[in-house]
């Protein structure tokens, strides 16, 4: 999305710190999460392999998420390149429609990247919750596990997701407004601000899960 001069899609920093010391009891299920909005639909599936610890599972999920985001950015970059070619080559003095198309395409690409990232976080959250349930069987009453379990279902955690969904909804409305804008460029700053807010929402959710993850790993 570099060519659009928009807020870059920052790939997540590591959600965890890989170490062989954390080869715990593995999950054997397949987790599928579908994130859907009126504008985009992103489906990602993570297969949890036997004997892969919690950190390893997160590594696999993170790799899939990065590949999805990378592929999405590549596709959008090509689309934007073609639109820019038309924009620069057309003899029509009124290029408003092409500018609308350029801005809408780039913003929808960014929106899909956000959706993919959110889907990955949902998988992380599900994996943590499942691991808590498993470990509580062996360690009933463990305070670290109980604290992590309460955290995942807390109002604070629900608020973080609610904020993300509300900001995405506003962003979608703003993107749709581009289609009828007489001056598409006038909407760019507002779109940038909204995209930045969504990015911050995702970072806050990730950080929240990092705390819970550390509690689960700590539980002995």
Q: Which range best describes the helical content: under 10%, 10-25%, 25-40%, 40-55%, 55-70% or over 70%?
A: 55-70%
Cα-based radius of gyration, to the nearest Å: 20 Å
Give the topology string: H per helix, E per strand: EEHHHHH
Tell me about the largest β-sheet.
Answer: 2 strands, antiparallel
* Strand tally: 2
Class per helix and strand makeup = mainly alpha
Per the principal axes of the C-alpha atoms, what is the gross shape? Answer: elongated
Tell me the number of structural domains.
1
Which residues form runs of ≥5 with pLDDT under 50?
1-52
Average pLDDT reading: 75
Portion in strands = 5-15%
Strand order in the sheet with the most strands: 1-2
Number of helices: 5
Intertermini distance? 45 Å
Multimeric status of the protein? single chain
């Amino acid at each position: 999305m570099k060519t659009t001069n928009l807020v870059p899609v920052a790939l997540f920093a590591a959600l965890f710190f890989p170490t062989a010391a954390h080869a715990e009891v593995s999950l054997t299920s397949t987790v599928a999460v579908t994130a859907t909005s009126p504008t985009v639909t992103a489906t990602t599936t993570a297969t949890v392999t036997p004997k892969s610890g919690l950190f390893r599972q997160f590594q696999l999920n993170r790799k899939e998420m990065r590949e999805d985001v990378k592929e999405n950015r590549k596709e959008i970059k090509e689309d934007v390149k073609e639109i820019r070619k038309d924009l620069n080559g057309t003899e029509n003095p009124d290029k408003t429609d092409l500018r609308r198309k350029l801005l809408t395409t780039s913003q929808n690409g960014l929106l899909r990247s956000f959706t993919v990232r959110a889907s990955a976080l949902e998988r992380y959250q599900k994996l943590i919750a499942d691991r808590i349930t498993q470990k509580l069987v062996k360690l009933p009453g463990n305070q670290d596990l109980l604290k992590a379990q309460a955290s995942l279902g807390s109002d604070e955690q629900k608020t973080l997701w609610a904020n993300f969904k509300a900001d995405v909804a506003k962003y979608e409305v703003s993107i749709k407004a581009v289609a009828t804008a007489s001056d598409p460029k006038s909407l760019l700053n507002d779109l940038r601000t909204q995209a930045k807010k969504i990015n911050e929402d995702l970072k806050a959710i990730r950080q929240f899960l990092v705390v819970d993850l550390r509690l689960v790993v700590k539980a002995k």
